[in-house]
Amino acid sequence: MRVLAIVxxxxxxxxxxxxxxxxxxxxxxCDVAVVDDGSTDATAEVARGHGATVLxxxxxxxxxxxxxxxxxxxxxxxxxxxxxxxxxGQHDPSSIPGALAPLREARADLVVGSRFLEAGGFRSxxxxxxxxxxxxxxxxxxxxARVTDPTSGFRAAGRNAIEYxxxxxxxxxxxxxxxxxxxxxGLRVVEVPVRMEPRLHGESSISAWGAVYYFVKxxxxxxxxxxxPTRKAPGAGSGDGIR
Amino acid sequence: MSRAPxxxxxxxxxxIAVLLGLLLxxxxxxxxxxxxxxxxxxxxxxxxxxxxxxxxPQGLRRIADLLGVEVASNALFALGFIYxxxxxxxxxxxxxxxxxxxxxxAQECALLRGEIEELRASLHDGSRSGEKx
Lengths: 243, 133
Prior knowledge:
The structure holds two protein chains of two kinds.
Chain A (H helix, E strand, L loop, with lengths): L2 E7 L6 H11 L4 E6 L6 H7 L3 E4 L6 H14 L4 E4 L11 H9 L5 E5 L11 H18 L11 E4 H9 L6 H11 L4 E5 L14 H16 L20
Parallel strand pairs in A: 1-2, 1-4, 2-3, 5-7
Antiparallel strand pairs in A: 4-6, 5-6
Chain B lengths: L8 H23 L5 H19 L1 H11 L4 H61 L1
């Protein structure tokens, strides 16, 4: 199975070396694509120095656009699976084999790493945890998806999910919405336990007021999902990427 | 005409002048290629309609009666609002479509950069192994 690790990174030159080292150590069979999302620091050079493929966007697209770039690369290069790992050191690459297992056994199309299935690791503040529970509930209500950690950015996608996400991926705060889209598409979503760490350096991208905005926006996104057979968005070509 | 003057004559003159000016401006932009026909279609149609209503206010009276508005000029204001809102919404739609396209272009650009880098690396490797043998 050819596996691509997608590492979105925006000004993560300080965190990236540890992430890429850990990736090489615990998942040596993975190819690594770092999506440099318009960074102004040495993110691209650092990634190149570690032997990763670097996909540099000319400007900052936001996490959704960056992840989708990774899926486009995975689709165009015929990967069987793609793993999303944040470039900030929150995700432990040693969970990758566990996340790939359901894909290998062909019992899932999308695997979500959940920090709540097993004890230990970083689990965010109680307030945010209740927010996450609310989103999980909303997801279940809206499209019957059963997940415990809808905000997790640790994902493994099989062929079908790669194809779908390359063509349709939400732009900002994409994690819960992408689960909803995948579920509605009929993709099988499965959760596996993972351990998460607090960020190594720098602040989380979501501040206190940002959290309020986040929940309002994600709630709206989930309530107003695109019309069922997703119409082709302008400019989102289906199968004609570069090869 | 059954009721008092529909719109004061001065107001009518000013409105016609303004709308005519706007219409001519849009046409000018169009002919100088600074506005595409597709994007200006709604402007042309809505401004033309507004101009027609202003030139023949009897139509305006009928609309006002239909809406149950006593004073015709109030109906005019309401229609004016709708006119602006519709044009604004069409602009936002165009903007969103354009943002999606821009995103796709940036992604394509990132993919091409990655592709070039890999090609360059494989060329480099090829020439090195060629030297060895």
